[in-house]
Design goal:
α4 packs parallel to α6 and α8 crosses α12. This protein has helices at about 15-20, 35-40, 55-65, 80-85, 100-105, 110-135, 180-200, 240-245, 265-280, 300-310, 340-345, 355-365, and strands at about 1-5, 25-30, 70, 90-95, 140-145, 160-165, 165-170, 200-210, 210, 250-255, 260-265, 285-290, 295-300, 320. The radius of gyration is 20 Å and the shape is globular. The chain has twelve helices and 14 strands. With about 375 residues, the protein is of the alpha/beta class. About 35% of the residues lie in helices and about 20% in strands. Bound molecules: nicotinamide-adenine-dinucleotide (NAD).
Length: about 375
């Protein structure tokens, strides 16, 4: 398949590009380096420097022989989008190109508006471009488990059969997000669902949980091909953050009571989920939704797992309950369904002690680069700051 990866410079985009070429697909990547510029503006940086897309594609080509065309530009600009779709007509589009950080979206009005505009406009352009240039292509869109929030009933995979006064209908599962970023993902899903009904698009919307890890089969032994490893409060995801905190001898920052439970997955599983979704596509006129995670943990459980492995490696790894800057339930019911991707053939990589120790070892090799002041800066979600 010809696959366009939108957001190809990102934490997930770049590993996906290598993975899909290694599985026989022809891939092009698109990005405007938004994530890099937001990190610079907010004075945060990933643990190791990541070469730009031209450098990474050249290196990957020299190692693997696969050529990946690079398009640098803003997917909010229609002329650019149309040009990309004309020059690389896709069979599949993987849409990662959004502002993906909930804490960033809650930073202040400007960050909130950027998130809202960016995420909705990129999604709308993906829809319009697909309809205009490749109506049979399939869209694989990254949503988030955060769209559902933490309801007091079981979470289904995207849809809920409702019976009301003796009649029945299937609806999108009720969604109530906890941040503006997550709310933009709900709006994306609504846009996609509208155009699936109206234009018969074929869409898979992957409700993904927080991803951890940096090692994939394709980047093995090549540090220049590793993705971003952010450990700051704005752009880092929780397990990646705990790993770096353990190495930095910074008490693991459990927010509040730490009973917040979510579904997690290894970056290797993200790549397989996205590839499986592409290779076993949604039907025309279908919005297919999968819950994309492999295990659930509370924040306390994650902190304890990291602590146990870190201590066995000689780190202090204390755990500290810190004031929760977020607005969220710290203890709640959580039972999400997640069989769809397994049915497509996903073989999960679980969070073992070995996986954690490998990451700790990597972070420890770069310990001198850790900037502890990035770790916890209390971006409070209950007020509009700055
Ligand atoms: N990483 C996770 O744990 C996680 C969990 C659930 C969902 N997701 C979703 O998966 C997707 C990828 O996440 P990620 O962690 O790789 O994020 P990321 O920020 O590393 O990647 C997104 C990429 O899209 C690019 N981009 C954003 N807006 C753009 C625009 N207007 N034009 C061109 N490029 C643009 C960014 O520069 C960035 O490189 C996002 O949609 C995110 O919401 C991620």
């Amino acid at each position: 398949m010809n696959v366009l990866i939108l957001g190809g410079d990102g934490y997930l985009g770049w590993p996906t590009a290598m993975h899909l070429t290694a599985h026989g697909h022809s891939v092009a990547v698109v990005d405007n380096y938004l994530r890099r510029s937001l990190c610079r503006e907010e004075n945060v940086a990933p643990l190791i420097e990541v070469p730009n897309l031209h450098q990474r594609t050249a290196l990957w080509e020299s190692i693997s022989g696969y050529h990946i065309p690079v398009f640098i530009g803003d997917l909010k600009k229609w002329e650019f989008v149309a040009d990309v779709f004309r020059r690389f007509p896709p069979d599949g589009i993987i849409h990662y190109a959004e502002q993906p950080a909930a804490p960033y979206s809650m930073l202040n009005r400007q960050a909130g508006m950027l998130t809202l505009r960016n995420n909705l406009e990129t999604t709308a352009h993906v829809i319009f471009a697909t309809q205009q240039f490749c109506p049979n292509a399939q869209i694989v869109k990254l949503g988030t488990m955060g769209e559902y929030g933490t309801p007091n009933i079981d979470i289904e995979e995207g849809w809920l059969e409702v019976e009301h006064r003796g009649r029945q209908q299937k609806f999108l599962y009720p969604r109530q997000a906890g941040s503006l970023y997550h709310t933009t993902k709900i709006m994306d899903t609504d846009l996609l669902w509208f155009y699936v009904r109206t234009w018969g698009l074929r869409v898979t919307d992957l409700m993904q949980g927080p991803v951890y890890g940096i090692f994939t089969i394709e980047n093995h032994g090549h540090q220049e091909l590793y993705p971003f490893l952010n450990y700051d409060e704005l752009f880092g995801t929780v397990l990646n953050r705990f790993i770096v905190q353990a190495v930095a001898e910074y008490p693991l920052t459990v927010y509040g009571k730490g009973g917040q439970t979510r579904g997690y997955l290894n970056i290797k599983d993200t790549l397989n989920c996205v590839r499986l979704s592409l290779e076993k596509p949604a039907r025309k006129g279908e919005l297919r939704i999968f819950n994309q995670f492999t295990e659930t943990f509370s924040v306390n459980q994650l902190a304890q797992k990291v602590q146990q492995v870190a201590r066995s490696m000689g780190f202090k790894a204390d755990i500290a309950s810190v004031e929760n800057p977020r607005m969220e339930a710290e203890e709640h019911y959580y039972n999400p369904e997640h069989t769809g991707l397994m049915d497509l053939g996903l073989k999960p990589h679980y969070l073992t002690d070995e996986v954690i120790s490998e990451m700790i070892e990597f972070a420890n090799n770069h310990k001198e680069k850790i900037r502890s002041e990035q770790i916890y800066r209390k971006v409070r979600w209950d007020q509009n700051q700055r």
